[in-house]
Amino acid sequence: MVTIGFIKGLFLGTMASCFTFIVYYGMFTPPVRNIVPVGQLQANIYRPLAQRAALKKNGNCIVVLQLQGFLMFSCMPNVLAAMNELLSQSQQNGNSELPHFLVVHLRHVTAVDYSAAYGFLAMRRAVKALENWSLVFCDLPANVEVVLFRTNCLTPADQFFVHSSLNAAMEDCEKRLLEFVNVTAPRNSIGDSLDTDGQRALAIALTGILEPLLPPAEYEAGNSFADAVTELAQHWQVRRCEANEAVWSAGNAANFIAIVSQGRFYTTKETQKLKSVVEHAEVGAVLGYLAFCTHRDRNCTLVALTDGELLTMSWAVFEQLRATRPYLVHALMLAFITRSATEYEFHCNLTGLAM
After folding, report:
1. Which segments constitute the Cyclic nucleotide-binding domain (predicted)?
2. What is residue 276's three-state secondary structure?
3. Cα-atom radius of gyration of the chain, to the nearest Å?
């Protein structure tokens, strides 16, 4: 009798523990941390206005699903339901011919039970069944990555779609999307007539800004933009930078503006709590214009991520150019204002990267 009672008690205790475990992790800890609305998140990389406009127009091509907690079989139906909702929203509002990406963010996932692997396999099959869709994983904890590879939810062939951070995943997806829609600057029609990296960088910065301001009498039709860029390039100085070199620091006087002509740079901003990267800058990025135009000190630090070159213009040259070629300075100022308005909306979207 004692033996039978002990076995029954052990069985009931085990069942109660399993039930409590399933209820606690499957119901009380929501597996879906956040469903990022379509088109509401972008990578913190500087892009020309034409590319920003293209990403805004086709933002529904990239959707983000953020998961959290301990994932096991009882919570995977909720995950798949959230995925289906995202896919449905994107398909309703998008162009099916463009590449689409489902980004699964796993930074806040503590562990994945092998019993939950079927859910990720179902996710993989669902995305693969859709035309022009790719499944992207990012911020995988080491223990989660092991489970996904052992259960074939991920394979070595998927390495191109596994990223170290949400920002890296967004940057790669945006790059693939922009390559498909062929939004590049300078345009091919003027690219052949621009000889130097500096001229091409200026073309990227001023495409869509400079053309309406050109006096038609001064330039031949069809080649005015390239001629104006070539002329404007003569007023900039080339500054070569080595990797990890600080171009300027927060608190420095803003006595020049800069445009990236080679390499990659990034800006950082320090607060009392942390030091964070604000934005990555590539060719065509206009940097430091707000402090330059308002005669204020720099509010961030600019650092070269790789060896590169900057085009710089001092206040003296800027004033001289304004006296001799006012429409070129007008184009620069308009580019700054347009850029500032776009940056405000862009940085609002960046808040999601901290989630």
Report:
1. 213-339
2. strand
3. 26
Q: Identify the CATH number of the domain defined by range 191-351.
A: 2.60.120.10
pLDDT, tens only, 103-127? 888 888 888 888 788 888 888 888 8
Backbone phi and psi for residue 260, each to the nearest 5 degrees, phi listed first: -75, 125
Q: Which of 158-172, 201-215, 257-271, 329-343 shows the lowest mean pLDDT across its residues?
A: 201-215
Q: What are phi and psi of 118, to 5 degrees?
A: -60, -30
| Contacts of 191-195 spanning 24+ positions with Cβ under 8 A | 193/223, 193/226, 193/230, 194/226, 194/229, 194/230
Residues in Cβ contact with 157 at an 8 Å cutoff, skipping those fewer than 6 apart: none
Q: CA–CA separation, 217 vs 69, rounded Å?
A: 66
Q: Which of the 8 DSSP states describes residue 186?
A: S
C-alpha dihedral over 70, 73, 79, 84, to 10 degrees? Answer: 160
- The shares of helix, strand and coil residues in the chain, as percent rounded to the nearest 5, are 50, 25, 25
- Angstrom distances, CA of residue 252 to CA of 157, 228, 248, 270, 296: 48, 32, 7, 14, 9
pLDDT tens profile 279-291:
778 777 788 888 8
Read off the tokens for 134: 């790719």
Please tell me the distance from the alpha carbon of residue 240 to that of residue 229, in angstroms, as a whole number. Answer: 21
Q: What is the CATH number of domain 27-181?
A: 3.30.750.24
Query: How many Å apart are CA 291 and CA 249, to the nearest integer?
Result: 12
- The angle that helices 117-128 and 76-93 make with each other, rounded to 10 degrees, is 20
How do the domains of the chain map onto residue ranges? 27-181, 191-351
Whether 27-181 and 191-351 share one fold: the answer is: no
